[in-house]
Design brief:
The chain is mostly beta strands. The chain has three domains: 118 residues, Jelly Rolls; 108 residues, Jelly Rolls, CATH 2.60.120.380; 112 residues, Jelly Rolls, CATH 2.60.120.380. 35% of the residues are buried. Helices cover 0% and strands 57% of the residues. Strands 2, 4, 7, 9, 11, 13, 14 and 16 form an eight-stranded mixed beta sheet that branches. The chain has a five-stranded mixed beta sheet with strand order 1-3-8-5-6, with no helix packed on it. It contains no helices and 26 strands.
């Protein structure tokens, strides 16, 4: 019997490669800890030597003595035939666990070699229009965090990331290949790697399991990155995002504010521009040069929570077709967000966003 202390298990995959079991030492144990929050534990036993067999078991240290004994609870088992891969996905509460790899003597000849991967991520469950929020940290010792979620039908997935204290993190969205954990076989569908404080993804997704990955930027020299991740998934009839961050900061509107040019498609169904108005300033907003139907809403995130709450949509424009969209006579000083999004029957479209500044006699 060989024993290995894995330590804390998080989203970063920990791999033990080319390990071996023999008739005289037929079992390996891997102890790990889940801290603070429930996580989905992923154990993947693979590359078992040809013509051999090994089984995978998961136990919880039920009595808290740090030793795998008869009082501990078996939480999962995988015993595929031959050298087929074994997989355990288990929703674990905080505590100490043991992964056990057994040489299956009835299906093995001599030494059995194997690889074992261990990881643990957050399982969000079914994602809907009600935003879900997570405040976490990354560091050089924990390089990424992963959030699994399910969609039952076509949805517009909105993810916003605020690296609110120090550093930068990247945001990616993957579609699961069916094994229940993030690995090299999962398809990257879209990424936000701007290197700014804010990252966002707005994606038209079909029914499937997805993983949102927040990863420490390898070029960042900050030891700890604190972030807030928000997630929602709206029905196709509700295309604008109820999550907002300033993806593009236009700044204070003046006579010289340049036009903004962009593109909407199924991998980017929403663009959000942040701007401000000073005292005695006003603006007319116009969306032009459309090649398919798109609409705009003007938002004032009064409580700065990154969520569009009741009463925070100031104005909107929903002209059918490719005609211009306009929001006029915005004259109250403050900070604003203008969101451009595909209309209900819209497709891919380019656009130009114009800000027509004017002076007002009042603050």
């Amino acid at each position: 019997m060989a024993y290995y202390d894995v330590g804390g298990l998080f989203a970063d995959t920990i791999s033990y490669n080319n390990f071996s079991l023999t008739p005289s030492q037929p079992t390996d144990y891997f102890e790990f800890t889940i801290y603070n929050d429930n996580r989905e534990v992923n154990l993947y036993l693979h590359d078992i030597s040809a013509n051999d067999n090994a089984d995978l078991l998961l136990y919880r240290d039920q009595n808290g003595n740090g030793i795998l004994d008869n009082n501990d609870a078996l939480m999962g088992f995988s015993g595929e035939d031959g050298n087929a891969d074994d997989l355990i996905n288990f929703e674990a509460i905080p505590g100490t666990y043991f992964a056990r790899v057994n040489r299956n003597k009835s299906g093995s000849n001599g030494t059995v070699t194997y690889d074992l991967d261990l990881s643990a991520h957050y399982n969000v469950g079914a994602l809907g229009s009600t935003p879900k929020s997570y405040t976490e940290s990354l560091s050089t010792g924990q390089l990424k965090e992963v959030y699994e979620f399910e969609l039952s039908g076509t949805r517009y997935v909105h993810l916003t990331l605020d690296n609110y204290i120090h550093g930068e993190a990247d945001l990616r969205l993957y579609q699961d290949n069916g094994n229940g954990f993030l690995d090299d076989g999962d398809a990257l569908v879209v990424a936000s790697l701007d290197g700014d404080r804010f990252e966002s993804i707005h994606y038209k997704a079909s029914a499937a399991t997805y993983f949102a990955e927040v990863e420490y930027d390898e070029f960042d020299l900050i030891s700890v990155i604190d972030y807030k991740l928000k997630m929602s998934a709206n029905l196709p009839t509700h295309k604008f995002s109820n999550l907002v961050v300033g993806e593009v900061d236009v700044g204070d509107i003046t006579h010289n504010t340049p036009d903004q040019v962009g593109l909407l498609n199924d991998t980017n169904v929403v663009d959000t521009y942040e701007f401000s108005l000073d005292y005695y300033e006003g603006v007319n907003i116009r969306l032009t040069d459309l090649t398919s139907d798109a609409s705009i809403v003007l938002i004032q995130d009064s409580n700065y929570n990154g969520i569009v709450d009741t009463g925070e949509i100031i104005d909107s424009s929903y002209t059918f077709g490719t005609g211009d969209e306009q929001i006029n006579n915005v004259e109250v000083s403050g900070n604003y967000l203008v969101q451009i999004f595909q209309a209900t029957f819209g497709g891919d479209t380019t656009y130009t966003l114009e800000f027509d500044h004017f002076s007002t006699p009042h603050a």
